[in-house]
């Protein structure tokens, strides 16, 4: 039995943190077409579309699909919660309960006003994403994209993520509150914290935060998987394991 299997089998609750190694920025770094489209989006002032670009390129990636599928299988019969910094919603491949996932960096799936009007968030319509595909496939320009309008000020809408000009955090507030409540219930329970591919970009959401959660619960253990930032801090020595492997590869091969 591997260390991960042992810790998981003994845990009552599992907190999974999904980080940058699962995200387009990491996985698509060397993809020229992705780079070209990111530049064209930036030139057109459409950075808000970047999380959709991630999804566009990664949605058929067999490695990512397998990694998420295996994460779903791992958590299926556990009392779990997932916090992810990815904005591409590919975690839906895991088949997990939506009410057990929070994504504080946002989701391309919701739209918000680019001027940041409070209360402007709406679910994106399929027709809008179909049009985005046309832009990515070169059949339309960014300027020709017909963007939905804000119900409050009439301005252009964009994806409700950190890439938005004025990111509206109200988009994830409800799921984050559920996460906070769930966390409160982990105290004095055997908790496995499974951190997958979290780098320094959102260290206060995953790495440092998850270390703190483990340090406050004597029955918690941390499994940290990352290609190079896999070490556990000295104060958590003997409270888990660091695994030196890209987290997507690790989960795809598990
Ligand atoms: Zn508005």
Topology:
Layout: H1 3-10, E1 13-18, H2 24-27, H3 32-43, H4 50-58, H5 62-75, E2 79-84, E3 101-102, E4 106-113, E5 122-123, H6 126-136, E6 157-161, H7 170-184, E7 191-196, H8 207-216, E8 220-226, E9 240-244, H9 247-253
Parallel strand pairs: 1-2, 1-7, 2-3, 7-8, 8-9
Antiparallel strand pairs: 4-5, 4-6
Helix pairs in contact: 3-4, 5-9
The chain binds zinc ion.
Description:
The structure is a single chain. The chain is α/β, with parallel strands linked by helices and 254 residues long. The chain is built from 9 helices and 9 strands. The strands form 2 sheets. The chain has a 6-stranded parallel β-sheet with strand order 3-2-1-7-8-9, with helices on both faces. Helix 3 (32-43) runs antiparallel to helix 4. The structure holds zinc ion. Residues 113, 115, 117, 120, 150, 152-153, 155 line the site of zinc ion.
CATH architecture: 3-Layer(aba) Sandwich
The gross shape turns out to be globular
**Largest sheet descriptor:** 6 strands, parallel
Note the run of SSEs as H and E: HEHHHHEEEEHEHEHEEH
The count of domains is 1
Strand % is 15-25%
CA-atom Rg in angstroms: 19 Å
Topology, number of strands: 9
Ligand inventory reads: zinc ion
Averaged pLDDT: 95
Residue runs with pLDDT of under 50 for 5 or more positions: none
| Structural class by sheet pairing and helices | alpha/beta
List the keywords.
3-stranded antiparallel β-sheet; 254 residues; Rossmann fold; globular; alpha/beta; binds zinc ion; 35% helix; 6-stranded parallel β-sheet
């Amino acid at each position: 039995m591997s260390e991960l299997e042992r810790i998981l089998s003994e845990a009552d609750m599992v907190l999974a943190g999904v980080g940058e190694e699962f995200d387009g920025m990491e996985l698509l770094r060397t993809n020229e077409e992705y780079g070209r489209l990111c530049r064209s989006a930036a030139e057109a002032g459409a950075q808000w579309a970047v999380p959709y670009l991630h999804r566009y390129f990664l949605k058929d990636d067999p490695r990512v699909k397998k990694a998420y599928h295996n994460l779903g299988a791992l958590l299926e019969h556990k009392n779990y919660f997932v916090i992810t910094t990815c904005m591409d919603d590919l975690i839906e491949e895991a088949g997990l309960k939506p009410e057990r996932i929070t994504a504080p960096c946002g989701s391309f799936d919701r739209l918000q006003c680019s001027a940041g009007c409070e209360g402007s968030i709406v679910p994106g319509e399929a027709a809008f994403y179909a049009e985005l595909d046309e832009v990515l496939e070169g059949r339309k320009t960014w300027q020709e994209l017909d963007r939905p309008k804000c119900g409050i000020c009439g301005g252009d809408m964009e994806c409700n993520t950190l890439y938005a000009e004025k990111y509206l955090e109200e988009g994830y507030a409800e799921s984050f509150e559920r996460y906070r409540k769930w966390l409160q219930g982990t105290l004095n329970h055997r908790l496995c914290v499974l951190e997958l591919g979290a780098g320094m970009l959102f260290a206060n959401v995953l790495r440092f935060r998850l270390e703190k959660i483990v340090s406050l619960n004597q029955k918690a253990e941390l499994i940290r998987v990352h290609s190079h930032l896999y070490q556990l801090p000295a104060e958590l020595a003997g409270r888990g394991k660091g695994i030196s492997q890209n987290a997507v590869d690790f989960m795809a091969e598990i």
